[in-house]
Amino acid sequence: MISTGRNAALAGRPEGLEQLRSLLDTALRALGDAALKRGGPVAPGGPEAAVAAVHEALGGGRLLADEPSAQRVTELFEAYARWAVDLTHPSAVARMQCAPTAASAAAELLAAALNQSLHAWESGPFALELERRLVRELASWVGFGAQAGGTLTPGGSISNLMGLLFSRERALKDTGAVSATGLAGRPVRPRILASAAAHFSVARAAGFLGLGRSAVVKVPVDDRGRMLTGEARRIVEGFDADEVPVAVVATAGTTDHGSFDPLPELADLAAEYGIWLHVDAAYGIGALFSPRLAPLLDGLGRADSVAFDLHKFGWTPASSSVLVVRDRTHMECLDEQAVYLNPSDDESLGFTALLGTSLQTTRRSDAFKMAATLLTVGREGMGDWVDACHEQARYAAGRIAAADGLELVADPLLTTVIFRCAGADGTPAADESALNAAVRRKLMADGRALLARTNVAGPDGTPRVHLKLVFLNPTTTEADIDALLRDVSAAARELAGR
């Protein structure tokens, strides 16, 4: 029996462990039942049904109810599981969002029950040392040496923000540390070079850092969304005397094509002009595990900072994002002495925390679940899973190219596939875009499939809505892909009245 109200048990106490066992059984039953009831990657019914499900699970009342209820907790578990997106379903191909390993999910439970933090030694000594060890190993993956440093973050957007924070500090240091004195009165115009296909978080980070979104200069790309180094060079050489290049942001695995900017060429450019090179490898880091795909990341070790996620292509629960820097001294702008957290005499005797590596103070132990996946799957296993997802994308692309009514944009570089449902001859571009958008929504509302969408310019340069598949489930079969594409084609024919 689960105690409620003032008698509710704390997870770490003996009575709490007993209740945790009972609740875990409830949660596992909810997971199993949900897979049977759901029938697809998401429950059918669309947004209105999801709103109604939350209302029903809460009994139509408030979360902070006058009368606490163990039964409501059970109903909440069941509703959450039923309405969760099933990332193990082969038709859940909308997002760079992976199903985690069982080991990492169990680690997440243990981490939650113990609730360790990384802001003070006494808040989680093992968790602190595990993150230090993991960061060193992750830095070595990308080719950084003993001087490297880094931190785990809540996501790729924050990792990019931190990489650009360090680049800002270095680029503007001649006029004083920005973190100490601010940007006001500086006779310079900071500039960040990023491709036109770079993640939106780059411009948002520039705004957060006081540089302004207008500081981001968009470098033209080729037809696959890869930055043109010649154009980047032309832009740098054309800067006025007061324009200061803060960073070149390269993308390794763009959100649409999964394309990789030419890292060796951009590293040469950055070195020549003394510009910080930040690589957003949030998605593309998966290539590093595959001997066949790893050359896509050649030159990564020449970057000054690299951001990547293991909750995209690492089979670990979110959040599992990483920022590593080639020289950890650039992280000193985060140093903070708080007498109640990291007094100097404690730190001198080894009672050191990670307060000076992160934008956060209280911070969860994400390294624990990441370590669980890495120890369980291993390097060869990770490579096999990456290759399996790559082959799925190649197979899907081949089937799309051969199908009537479907048009492939390009062969996949990693594990994303972009295509569209073609309208009848003479169909206006706007109507064709509306058809593709409607196909996606219909498949979601019916609970049949979860696809992403993007815009790709047509022959006349007008952006058209396209559909996108993202393969991150190594267990998906060719038969699963065939079934998914049949559902897409059937939905298109139904909506087009054909």
Automatic annotation (TrEMBL):
GO cellular component: cytoplasm
GO biological process terms, semicolon-separated: carboxylic acid metabolic process
Co-factor requirement: pyridoxal 5'-phosphate
One Pfam family linked to the record: Pyridoxal_deC
SUPFAM superfamilies in UniProt: PLP-dependent transferases
Superkingdom to which the source organism belongs: Bacteria
Keywords: Decarboxylase, Lyase, Pyridoxal phosphate
GO molecular function list: aromatic-L-amino-acid decarboxylase activity; pyridoxal phosphate binding
Family: Belongs to the group II decarboxylase family.
Protein name: Pyridoxal-dependent decarboxylase
